[in-house]
């Protein structure tokens, strides 16, 4: 065998080994988060509901007005296309008033949630408290994950994690292959990586958005469930009862005994994401059945800037204004926006953010 052929084979084997066993290798290969990433990670499956709920389709479509984007006036369809959207739904009073898909996506296309999963994790924490699996948001993390007491997490409460005020030392930079978020996203052994996290500030003194907070919530939930997977709990408490039309999945760190990446990576379709918004639009009640405690929904979407909290963030939900609206948000421009005053749910999924969607949703609320 010629030397250059041997070198090529050696490098190919080396790269395959890196990709399969090393988060650094996977980071180099995949480079940055993408909406096809649900294909590269192992997952736990969510089954479609046996009694699917479907939104009505309005008899008359209501198309938003033109938008000025990059100094050009565009129809709303073109605006969505130019901002790299792949799915967009406007739903009012359970009727789809406007729905568009781009780049070969359609109603059955899977898109990962990215950080919208943080809001779903919050839903499950509320359910676990209601079920008596978690006593209170004032419980310290170490009550459920004793291994973390040594790093100061006997002083960090579940509420600190929900509010992003834990004082966690965590590099949120997606471009840093050596940062914590890359370890959490691409790496194996997520339980151990989470248990090894440390603090850099006094809990309850400042807001600092960090995905590690939500993964610790996931670890707390994992311990509280005592053998049941987080995906199975989501299936039982929300996915089946709200009538999800499609099967979905939650990405995990490894095939054997893996844990859900609760800071990201719930993989589903646009209309089913919209149902999560509808659930909170109705204070956790679905067709007369209380799935998430109403008090939890209220607490999760109110403005609170005490204890170092941000007035724009509450229990893993973003608050774009101080007028009662709220949203789940993902890094590439994944959004579930809810405006209770207008009885409105908007879902936007895309390849990248593209524009200031917080302002855009408020403007759309005025139009609808």
TrEMBL record:
Entries under Gene3D superfamilies matching the protein: DD-peptidase/beta-lactamase superfamily (3.40.710.10)
UniProt xrefs under Pfam families: Beta-lactamase
Keywords attached to this entry: Hydrolase
Enzyme Commission number(s) from the entry: 3.-.-.-
Beta-lactamase-related domain segment(s): 81-359
Top-level taxonomic group: Bacteria
Keyword Hydrolase among UniProt keywords: yes
UniProt GO MF annotations: hydrolase activity
EC class (word): hydrolase
SUPFAM superfamilies: beta-lactamase/transpeptidase-like
Protein name (record): Serine hydrolase domain-containing protein
Annotated organism of origin: Sphingobacterium anhuiense
């Amino acid at each position: 065998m010629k030397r250059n052929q041997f070198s090529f084979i050696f490098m190919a084997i080396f790269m395959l080994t890196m990709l399969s066993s090393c988060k650094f290798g996977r980071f180099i290969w995949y480079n940055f988060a993408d909406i096809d990433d649900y294909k590269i990670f192992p997952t736990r499956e969510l089954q479609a509901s046996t009694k699917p709920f479907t939104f009505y389709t309005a008899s008359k479509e209501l198309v938003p007005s033109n938008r000025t984007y990059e100094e050009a006036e565009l129809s709303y369809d073109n605006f969505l296309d130019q901002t790299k959207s792949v799915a967009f739904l406007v739903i009012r009073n359970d009727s789809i008033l406007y729905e568009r898909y781009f780049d070969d996506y359609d109603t059955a296309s899977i898109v990962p949630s990215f950080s919208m999963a943080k809001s779903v994790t919050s839903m499950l924490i509320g359910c676990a408290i209601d079920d008596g699996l978690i006593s209170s948001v004032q419980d310290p993390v170490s009550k459920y994950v004793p291994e973390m007491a040594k790093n100061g997490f006997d002083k960090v409460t579940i509420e600190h994690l929900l509010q992003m005020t834990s004082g966690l030392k965590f590099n949120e930079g997606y471009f840093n292959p050596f940062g914590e978020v890359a370890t959490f996203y691409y790496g194996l052994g997520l339980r151990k990586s989470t248990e090894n996290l440390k603090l850099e500030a006094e809990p309850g003194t400042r807001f600092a958005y960090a995905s590690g907070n939500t993964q610790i919530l996931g670890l707390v939930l994992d311990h509280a469930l005592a053998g049941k997977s987080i995906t199975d709990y989501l299936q039982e408490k929300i996915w089946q009862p709200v009538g999800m039309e499609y099967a979905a999945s939650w990405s995990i760190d490894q095939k054997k005994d893996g844990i859900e990446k609760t800071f990201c990576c719930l993989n589903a379709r646009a209309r089913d994401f919209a149902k999560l918004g509808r659930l909170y639009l109705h204070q956790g009640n679905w067709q007369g059945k209380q799935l998430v405690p109403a008090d939890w929904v209220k607490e999760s979407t109110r403005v609170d800037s005490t204890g170092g909290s941000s007035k724009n963030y509450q229990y893993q939900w973003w608050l774009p204004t101080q007028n009662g609206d709220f949203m789940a948000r993902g890094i590439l421009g994944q959004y579930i926006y809810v405006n209770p005053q207008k009885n409105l749910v908007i879902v936007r999924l895309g390849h990248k953010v593209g524009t200031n969607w917080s302002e855009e949703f408020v403007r759309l609320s005025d139009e609808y």
